[in-house]
Design a protein that fits this description.
The protein is an alpha/beta fold. About 40% of the residues lie in helices and about 15% in strands. The protein has helices at about 30-40, 55-65, 90-105, 120-130, 130-140, 155-160, 175-180, 190-205, 235-240, 255-265, 270-275, 305-315, 320-325, 340-345, 350-365; strands at about 5, 10-15, 45, 70-75, 80, 85, 110-115, 145-150, 170-175, 205-210, 245-250. The structure holds iron/sulfur cluster (SF4) (2 copies).
Length: about 375
């Protein structure tokens, strides 16, 4: 497992966490074995927008003394009173649901309390007007909730909630199909709007936890992929992890076999994770933008092209630490010899050698 540090709080979070929407399908025994395997492999971030009640019992019965080493992302707006997942904005229902979740998880605190699944501005209005937000804030004040997050598929709503300054984490649907607006109902917002959202989160120190990294499985099958080609899970995971602000990707797993396969990401080689083929599908509005993929490597001058571009974009977005990170790079844009290798290799149409001049001028080296 690799870990990333959450800017607000400093927690070290595994870059692959566990989504639990389908875990209940395996039955109690397999669900518990899957949670146990996750712990053994260093998975420490568990999303609990579950499809049914089983994942709560599996975590509650399995995590035990390791509770302080794991982070639970609990959704204030997910209701399990019927035994299955339901969505609600009702504060009293949310209170009952959270009480049940804490009891079943055998814990008395929530690491990440999430405003759950708001996709329309009217939902956010209702969440505040009807008392759900006050309840979440009260638990944060009491120390029962450690961090506040939001889950949403809609950049405009995410921006609105980010404006409050309350968020430490955003759960967002990140995959190439949605980013390029080819993936159906959740492909919300233009490519540029989505990119700006990721950059803003990074600049604010708000982490992103990724849901639907495989576009509900559509991207993994040529017959359903909007690109007409299947991507691998590893390409999708790397794509998500390389978006600005992303802290962890949360694939939904049904059993130990799913989990083992997904964690194989850490043993995958460059060719297995490279998503440069997406360059052919880049929409005009996003063409020419460096996505930090490093498909253009190797640079003969030894520059980390993706990282240099990332720090530059962050600096432009107002991240005060970006210039310092840039200064600590062994090779900077000023070392570019303008050989043009990256220009010819970049699938996303970036005139990188010219951009390197721009970056060197901006940072002064
Ligand atoms: S220049 Fe192109 S290939 Fe290189 S990191 Fe940027 S987007 Fe990727
Ligand atoms: S143009 Fe500059 S950044 Fe690109 S490969 Fe050549 S030396 Fe490296």
């Amino acid at each position: 497992m690799e870990y990333r540090i959450l800017p607000h709080g400093g927690e070290a979070i595994g870059v692959i966490g566990m989504g639990s929407s389908s875990l209940g399908q395996a039955g109690p025994k397999e669900a518990r074995a899957t949670v146990a395997l996750a712990l053994e492999k260093g998975v420490n971030y568990f999303d609990l927008a579950a499809g049914d009640t089983e994942p709560f019992a599996a975590c509650g019965d399995t995590v035990g003394g390791a509770r302080k080493k794991v982070f639970y992302q609990v959704h204030f707006g997910a209701d399990y009173s019927t035994g299955k997942y339901g969505w609600t904005l009702n504060a009293e229902t949310i209170k009952r649901s959270v009480a049940w979740q804490l009891e079943t998880l055998k814990t008395d605190y929530v690491d990440f309390g999430f405003i759950h699944c708001l996709d329309e501005a009217a939902d956010w209005d209702a969440y505040r007007a009807d008392g759900a937000m006050d309840y979440l804030l009260a638990l944060k004040h009491q120390g029962v909730v450690r961090h506040i997050g939001l889950s949403s598929h809609t950049p405009a709503v995410a921006r609105q909630v980010l404006d409050t300054g309350l968020l430490d984490m955003l759960m967002f649907s990140v995959n190439p199909a949605y980013d390029y607006r080819t993936g159906g109902e959740f492909a919300i917002g233009s490519a540029d709007e989505r990119w700006q959202l990721y950059r803003r989160c990074q600049a604010l120190g708000v982490g992103i936890t990724v849901m639907k990294p495989f576009c509900g499985g559509q991207l993994l099958d040529a017959a359903t992929s909007p690109f007409g080609k299947a991507l691998t899970e590893y390409q999708c995971i790397r794509y998500a992890l390389e978006r600005p602000g992303v802290v962890t990707v949360l694939p939904g797993v049904r059993n130990r076999a799913d989990l083992q396969r997904v964690l194989g990401y850490f043993d995958a080689n460059e060719a297995e994770t490279d998503y440069g083929m997406l360059g052919a599908y880049t929409p005009a509005e996003a063409s020419g933008r460096c996505v930090y993929c490093n498909h253009c490597q190797p640079c003969p001058a030894g520059l980390d092209v993706g990282l240099i571009n990332k720090y530059y974009d962050l600096a432009l977005a107002g991240d005060a630490l970006a210039a310092d990170h840039y200064d600590h790079l062994g090779k900077t844009a000023g070392d570019c010899i303008a050989c043009g290798h990256c220009d010819s290799r970049c699938p996303f149409g970036v005139a990188q050698s010219i951009r390197m001049e721009e970056i060197a001028a901006y940072f002064g080296r």
